[in-house]
Amino acid sequence: MTRAAGILAGAALLVWPAALNHYPLVFSDTGALLAQTVQGWAIWDKPLVYGPLLHALHWRVTLWLPLAGQGLVLSWLVWLVQRSLGGATAGRHVLLCAGLAAATAAPWFTALLLPDWLAPALVLATYLLGFAWDGLGRAERAGVALLALLAAAAHLSHLPIAAALVLLVLAVRRTARPALRCALPLAGAMALLLATNAWAHGRFALSPYGAVFALARLVGDGPAARTVEARCPAAGWHLCRWAGRLPRDSDDFLWSGEGPVWAARADGAAPGGPISLAPEAAAILAETLWREPLGVLRAAAGNAWRQLGMVRVGDTLGPENLQASVARQLALGFPPAEQARFAASLQARGVLPAAAAPFLLLHPAALLLGAAGVLLASWRARGRMLGLMLCVLVGLGANALATGALSGPHDRYQARIAWLLPLAALLAAPRALREDNVKGAPA
Q1: Cβ proximity of 350 and 26 under 8 Å
Q2: What does residue 132 show for φ and ψ, rounded to 5 degrees?
Q3: Residues 286-303: what's their mean pLDDT?
Q4: What local confidence, expressed as pLDDT, does residue 115 receive?
Q5: pLDDT category, 441, cuts 50, 70, 90?
């Protein structure tokens, strides 16, 4: 089997849940990302990155094409990581991808048309840039750097992950050049976000309205709700109307049509919603950090800790809100045949969770074994293997902090990246066996 055939086979394995579903997996956010190009909407809470990437492949024909792209890119990336550690062959690559496909969440996120799959891709790409640069060809270096840039820009939670990984590379390598190679994609991602937000929203910012998300989290945790109670009604804030009764669930705060974000404004500010709330949200956040810095830190640490243990697949498999989001965009911009394919999928008919359940049973055991394998291997790992282990561990921690502390713990956020533990353990096992055989060989 040639290398290309092995990567193609690996790609097929890494997106197999789409075959089970008879269609790529989607989520309500997929509809918003499609709307960025189908309707030309500048969605207030999503970078203008992943939506155009989807369009670059689907061209309003079919979502199977972006699915194939995701599988190929991730399979190629895993191949490069495997090769960097020695002993890579097409057959071994297929076996590795088969193990990930059978026992981890990797295929469930690679087959999902969201930027979530780019979080683990960012970790692997940074490892290659920081620890395995010498083993990459010129085109591979450019490809990995571009992937790291797009991965960091595709979701705001990926920026702190990238920053944490840059600091790790600097601390371990102790020279500026490897860290600079990892920092350049992060700088490029920030420049891309600044440029696209200036064009789409007229605001030169990484996250024009991100303060609303952070406020929702601190309202749910309590500190911001106490700030509103203490400062109202004198502050004259829009949220003063909800003083003492703000939603404790951040999702209710953000998305409920009757909640404070989307309610009609007494001051008539336009366009209303989160865009009009953002300046007030920033002011409340600043005052909350001044009033209760320790309370904010405790809440962030508690949410990050909870997020570390929330690794179940399932909250992206149901049909909730898909008709109003994905089906609508398909109806607006895709041929009838594509709309029919989506409507016939298990997910659209609400039966995918039951069909998927038997395939998810191995995930907890694989994660536990993977975590144990990584911790054990880290004690004796050196060079590139140690770099991979550290990138995985730091990536997991940074992901939990970025998503749990800033958005709120959800299974999807940690499950998307936790499968790197079994991957690292599987890559470490053959190397450890080879080293043991060498040590045990007669002199």
Answers
A1: no
A2: -130, 25
A3: 94
A4: 97
A5: very low
